[in-house]
Amino acid sequence: MKFKQLILFFLSSYHLFSYTQTFHYKAEATVDSNQILIGDHIRLRLSITADSQSNILFPTLKDTAIQGFEIIHYENIKIDTQENALFYSQNFTLTSFDSGTYLIPPIQFYNTDSILLAETQAIQIKVNTLDVDTTQAIKDIKPPLSVPLTWKEIYPYLIIGAIAALLVLLIIFLIKRIKIRKKPQVVEKQKPSLPAHIIALEALEKLRLKKLWQQGEIKQYYSELTDILRIYIENRWDIQAMEMVSSEIIESLNLQLNNHELVEKINIALSHADLVKFAKGNPLPNENQLSFDYIVSFVKTTALTDEQKENNKEL
To answer: Across the chain, where does the E strand assignment appear?
Structure first.
């Protein structure tokens, strides 16, 4: 029994060995041209036909493997089935920048057991340069040709220019609009229909009825009281009292009136107001009432009489 098994083993091994020896491995290297100009491309194709049981190691090419050429591109290995065999192939794109005659050497194909299966034939390639006629005079380099612009080339620039112009106009418009808004509007001041002292006395009476300082609203009380005084001074003498500080108002009144005692009473009332507004003061109740009385007395004393009105009209 053991003897039969040994015979079968030797027979199968012999058959496999015989098949490997009898299969014809065919390796080829082909190019699409044997002559090129410097810088041109040439395609190299490597292929091998092997049996389906062979483990082919496809050669890896590098620039140093082919003298005088550079590999600028290569494709993946393709495998096609052909009856009981496999066809392996790979394409390479080569170029050369030196003239001369170069040889692509034989390229070997091995299997995984490092057994040489086949090799390609060497290929000779000639790299030519451009012929130069030395008998002719050297000519200058031709200048660039002037090509007329087309509408397609001009159109994008026109669009960009139009958009830029619109943006500039929009910015100018916005700047002018902002300046107009910021420009102070001059409003012609209309003279009140009622005499200045009547307007002031009516406002003082309304303030008295509010009883602000009696309710603890000291700051509000002095704010309204001094505003009534300032408006009266503006209507009576055309003095911009609303835009003046207390000292400027007193100085202007001294120029208008020859009554130091009356102006001093207004100075006391304004001092009480400034103390409350800016120093958080709290005048006594009699001082609050006294400031009110001083301003009422000032308005009544300086009221424009009918005789003064007529004199002003004559002037």
So the answer is: 26-31, 35-37, 41-51, 56-57, 70-74, 78-82, 85-95, 100-104, 108-111, 116-119, 123-128
Do the bridges between strand 35-37 and strand 123-128 make them parallel or antiparallel, or are there none, so unpaired?
Answer: parallel
Strand partners, 289: none
User: How does pLDDT run along the chain (315 residues), one tens digit per residue?
Assistant: 556 555 554 554 444 444 445 567 889 999 999 999 998 999 999 999 888 777 888 888 876 668 888 898 889 888 888 777 888 899 999 998 888 899 989 998 988 888 888 899 999 999 998 776 667 777 777 777 777 878 788 888 889 989 999 999 999 988 888 877 665 454 455 666 789 999 999 999 999 999 999 999 999 999 999 999 999 999 999 989 999 999 999 999 999 888 999 999 999 999 999 999 888 888 899 999 999 999 999 999 998 775 555 555 544
CB environment 231-264: b (16+ within 10 A), e (fewer): bbbbbbbebebeebebeebbebbeeeeeeeebbe
Compute how many other C-beta atoms are within 10 angstroms of the C-beta atom of residue 7: 10
What string of DSSP letters covers 76-93?
PPEEEEETTEEEEEEEEE
Domains in the chain: ranges and CATH: 23-128 (2.60.40.10), 196-305 (no CATH)
3-state DSSP percent of the chain in helix, strand and coil, to 5: 50, 20, 30
Report CA 125 to chain centroid distance, whole Å.
Answer: 56
Of the chain, the end-to-end C-alpha distance in Å amounts to: 157
- The C-alpha atoms of residue 58 and residue 118 are separated, in whole angstroms, by 11
Please check whether residue 44 is in contact with residue 104, taking contact to mean a CB–CB distance below 8 angstroms.
Answer: yes
Q: What single string gives the DSSP state of each residue in 131-183?
A: P--TTSPPPPPPPPPP-PPPHHHHHHHHHHHHHHHHHHHHHHHHHHHHHHHHS
Q: Is the pTM for the entire model greater than 0.90?
A: no
* Alpha carbon separation from 286 to 269, 272, 304 (Å, rounded): 12, 12, 29
